[in-house]
Amino acid sequence: EKELPRLKDVFEDYFKIGAAVNKWTLHSAKDLVTTQFNSITAENEMKPEMLQPKEGEFNFEYSDQLVSFANEHHLGLRGHTLVWHNQCPDWMFKNESGQTVDRGRLLKRMDQHIETVVSRYADQIYSWDVVNEVIADEEDRFLRKSQWLELAGEEFIERAFHTAHKADPNATLFYNDYNESDPIKRDKIYKLVKSLLEKKVPIHGVGMQAHWNIHTPSIEHIQQAIELYASLGLEVQITEMDLSVFSWDDKRTDLMKPTKEMLDLQEKRYEQIFNLFREYKDVISSVTFWGAADDYTWLSNFPVKGRKNWPFLFDEHFNPKQSFWSVVQF
Ligand code: XIL
């Protein structure tokens, strides 16, 4: 039998090819991950609530395992994430009496978290998502309402980058967000990152999460977003890609397997999107999927709980889908 092409070889002259893994898929999808990919991201294991469940008590058990796994198999590692409104432990925002902390204390805790985590893995992680999802989705708001913003003020954003940079001057530091190709949100992301650059904040890239589906966003909007972020002179990384077979408003829950129409559309979209990525190889330094194969995806619980989805290039049995072939044949 002829050997399957490997994504990491096919795209060797273009960009790194990554998969998000967690403490289960690290084992179940081990062979697929180590043969097809050359980068991994922790799906949850490096988020603040996992790493520092109690103030000053760090738990590096799983993140250390990921780091050794990456080293052992010569995989690059993306760090995800340092400052986010989700999966951040509650204690971060509270004092001993259960009231909200003041600005100074919160920023100090933020610095301590970043310092501890980033320096522990210095030179082992090529890029960090330093700040995740702080732009608002509402048209009339710029920054997302969050405890970070309310308690610390918007300065926490630039400070996070400075602290991360000091802890590992060699890692490239990213601002990461979703709906990143929507023209209105895209312009806000651009505005934020531009203002950081003007203040000489050490930021090196924009992470496009790329939680897309088989209908939207348009290739044109994706291209415009890449162009705009690249116009800042920064790297772009595709950080959490999946192509859901359901459009956002499709709330059906009765499908046991994807229809032929869905798979055909997905194949076509993957082909177009990777054609675009290859055109921008001087800008895009890595493309990471938010999983490895259709046996496991966070989309099975989002946005509809308990609904299966089939967003990747490999099926439930780790076999290549027609989408795989459309991506590797060019
Ligand atoms: C998701 C994980 O995949 C889930 O397992 C978890 O329950 C919630 O977070 N944007 C991000 C990622 O930056 O961290 C999210 O990951 C998906 C959306």
What is the gist of this entry?
This protein is an alpha/beta fold and 330 residues long. Helix content is 37%, strand content 16%. The protein is globular, with a radius of gyration of 19 Å.
Structure report:
- By secondary structure, the protein is an alpha/beta fold.
- The chain has twelve helices and nine strands.
- The chain has an eight-stranded parallel β-barrel with strand order 1-2-3-4-5-6-8-9, surrounded by five helices.
- β5, α9 (183-198) and β6 form a beta-alpha-beta unit.
- It starts with 6 loop residues before the first helix and ends with a helix.
- (3S,4R)-3-hydroxy-2-oxopiperidin-4-yl beta-D-xylopyranoside is lined by residues 43-44, 132, 178, 209, 240, 298.
Supply database-style keywords.
single chain; 330 residues; alpha/beta; eight-stranded parallel β-barrel; 12 helices; globular; binds (3S,4R)-3-hydroxy-2-oxopiperidin-4-yl beta-D-xylopyranoside; glycosidase; GH10_dom; hydrolase; EC 3.2.1.8
